[in-house]
């Protein structure tokens, strides 16, 4: 049986690994979070699929015509963009409340606090998986070919998941102390959405001399980790991989510093 020090102790890398081994605990908590969101609903989590399909269909039809894009290319592009962006946005905004919503557990149970970070990732992954289902349906309708190269999305998703977990670690610790952080990040993410090639393509920016908008935007490279292999059935360009790895290392270092400085005080600020 694994035991832990008091809630005020500083977590180590080993505790992150130990918490990961308690996957039944945080997975159950995460699934319950999804179920509670749709309690007494007729469709339950099926509303995620309905809402996502409706949004993609409406936005795709309008912006596809507005940008004069062929729908068989634009709609799958848009679908992956919105689904992937939703994951990034959730890890940065909803992640701020990861410790706050777990206040009762943190003060009553000796589990490592990292369990509640893993728990917060579960709903994001479920919504992302449903979104991928919408993409595959869309790709099948438009008969887009997809080769074995699309499997590059698997190692890319691992990197993508690690980066977003670092996002979550950072904002969860800061958000527990500064309760205005979700509102601040919500506004920042909204602005970043319009500066990132989610609903418009890179070619559109290049044609208008705005290539710098995506070239200096690390969130674009995170999007391409998932979008490029699924749309092109090949590995993402080297620059996408290198920038994403560099960003992951930077985010990991910041997360380590934040954990070292703030984790032992979480129980006191809740």
Automatic annotation (TrEMBL):
Keywords: Membrane, Transmembrane, Transmembrane helix, Transport
Listed GO biological process terms: lipopolysaccharide transport
The keyword Membrane is assigned to this record: yes
Segments traversing the membrane: 42-63, 75-100, 121-142, 148-172, 184-205, 240-259
Keyword ATP-binding appears in the UniProt entry: no
Family statement: Belongs to the ABC-2 integral membrane protein family.
UniProt name for this protein: ABC-2 type transporter
